[in-house]
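Bug #77: duplicate submission created two jobs. Keeping one. Sequence:
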Amino acid sequence: MRIVSLLPAATEICFALGLGDDVVGVSRECDFPGAAREKPIVSYALLEYEGKTSGETSRMVGGRIESGEALYQVDESALLSSGPDLILTQGLCDVCAPTLGDVEDVARRLPWRPVIESLDPHRLEDMLQDILRVGRACAIEARAVEVVAALRERIDRVAERASTAPVRPKTVCLEWLDPLFLGGHWVPEMVGLAGGVNVLSRAGDKSRRVERHEVVTASPDVAVLMPCGFDLDRTRKEASVVTGTRWWTDLPAARADRAWIVDGSSYFNRPGPRLVDGLEILAHILHPDL
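Kept job's structure:
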C-alpha cells in the first residue's frame, strides 16, 4: 500500500498503525513522528506563517479567502511521482490543509484512480473511528482495533479518575488569540472528560469567534491557551496578546494563577491519537491532585 497523507493527524494515525514505511508523501505540516519529516512533500501552504503573530496570520488568511485564492496547493508532479494507492485528506477545515475538492481535482488527472479517504472528525469517537477506517483501507483492521482499544482504555481511565473530583471548574479553552476563538469540536468533550465544565462552546460544534466580554461574563476558573498550529514556545511568546490585557487579569482563572499555555499543535488541534495525551494533560491541569 502506497499512502499519501495530506494532513498531520492522518500521518500520525498511519505511524501509530505501523504504516510509516507505506507513507510515500506528506504535507509540509506533517512533523510527527520525526520520520514523517523525511517523507517527500506533496502539498504545501501558499502563505508563510513562520514568525507571524495571531493577528498577522488572521489578516493574511482573511485576505486570501476574500480574494478567492487557495491557501494550500497539491503538487501534482510530486503526487504523480509518489504513485499513491490511497490519499488521506480532510474536509473539516479550509484553513488547515488542502480541501477535499482540491484533492479530488488533482487526483482525477492522475493516470490511475487512487482511493481517497476524507477524515472529518468532530468528536473523540470520530477520531477513533478514523483510525479504524484507515486500518480497514490498508487491510490491517486487527491492528487498528488494538490501537483504538488502548486509546479507549486511557480515555476511560481519565474519566473514571475525574468522576471522583469534588468540584468541576468552569473552563475556557482558546484556540486562537487575535481575534479570540474558542476551542471547538472535540475540545469541549475533552474538558468534560477531564473533570471540568466547558463554558461558551459545546462538544461537536465548530470553533467560533468569541468576544472578550463573553469570556469575562463566563467567569472561568481555569483558562487554557491552545492556539491552532502553535507549539509551546510560540504560544508562550504570543500569550501576552490576551494575558497582558486588563480584562484578562480580572478573570478568576488569572487571579487564581490557573491560566495555562499548552502545545496546541501537538495535543489539542490535530484529531489524531495524541488527543488522548491532550486529555491527560487537561486532567492534570484541572485536577492536579487526582
